[in-house]
Amino acid sequence: MNFEIIKSNPNLLLVYIPRDGSEWIDEFFEREQELCLKYTFHLKKEHCTNLNSGNTYSRIFIIGNLKTDKYYEIDKSIFQLTNSFYIAEDIDISGEMFLTEIGNVPVLHIIDGIVNDSVYIGGDHENAIPIQDFQMLIDEFPTRTELKHYASSRIENILKEYLNFKTDSQAKLDHYISRRQRHTVPVELSSIREFEIQKYEFIRDRLKEMLKNPDVFSEKIWEQKILEFILLLYPKYVKVLHSIPVYDFYTSPGQTVKRQIDLALLDANGNMDIIEIKKPFANCVLSTNPSYRDNHVPCRDLSGAVVQAEKYIFHLCKWGINGENKLNDKYKGELQSNLRIRIVNPKAILILGRSNNFNSRQKFDFEIIRRKYANIMDILTYDDLLERLDHIIEKF
After folding, report:
1. What single DSSP character describes residue 9?
2. Which of 66-70, 282-286, 305-309 is predicted least confidently?
3. What is the pTM of this model?
4. How confident is the model at residue 183 (pLDDT cuts 50, 70, 90)?
5. What pLDDT score was predicted for residue 1?
6. Are 302 and 314 in contact (CB under 8 A)?
7. H-type helices in 89-188, by residue range?
8. 342: helix, coil or strand?
9. CA dist 292 → 156, 231, 267, 289, 300 (Å)
């Protein structure tokens, strides 16, 4: 880089040494034009401190000012920032904090585009990013080689149906990333717990908001949102499968009927389970009043979902190894290279309805029903999910 960052209290300075002298910069400023340096620094005449010094070798610009709390406040106009950025006075401030190795990638501007708060780097501010973590962020930016492999991989994915390629660009990209040295910073377990609390609080709060007005979501969007939550609540699952075919050899004797399971989950070992997600319609779990010998019985939606899940599990088990082979052929393009679908006593997760208005009798009867099927399926209402989230948060 033909520039450097130096501290000259109370200013943070950018010293730029052009290869072909600085007269052309002066001409820029005389015409009231902006100098855009490396797509990162947007410099104007008023930023320059030695414009009339007679120095023809360099130009010096003020890019930040020291504040009383021992932080340099970065000039927003130079970096075209919306949020305020502060860099601790006592850390080594270098050019790579503003411009990445691949060049022309403005670090602060990228961060500014995805945050909505003031950013403190280093120092003892309560929300400061430790300098080690910020350095790790810089190190994680892609290199020119990585970008080249990534671009080749995207091109190959789009055109692979029409053309033959000399090499496997995706494999090259994966190999490069696996070889690239990554810097890690030790993190205390207390910090990890704090992240977990924030994660589960976000899920809980988002679910509560959705439950206030579920009708604004289509069935498909609702299903997608809940699936995202489920993958975080059940970390053993690593893959969602859609529209899974299964063959029914029993409903019509002498005929094979092809049926379809809407959703399934694969765990880290490839074992498949079924999941049914219904929107939280009112009164779709238990009868409101005792209707059979003073008992609250399952409503049609719950009974139907249970029977359907039981049948899917039955057909999957009867399909056996042939089913495994067919499913692995169907989904081979979606699975990780070392992951294979296995049908080993599948279970089901049913999510439907609300239980927040259940009286004590209904809660008891519902628990009886759930425990009856506990060996093959987990029956949950949306209020059960909220309760589980509260217990998880309390645990952390």
Report:
1. T
2. 282-286
3. 0.52
4. very low
5. 54
6. no
7. 107-112, 131-140, 144-159, 169-179
8. strand
9. 63, 38, 40, 9, 14
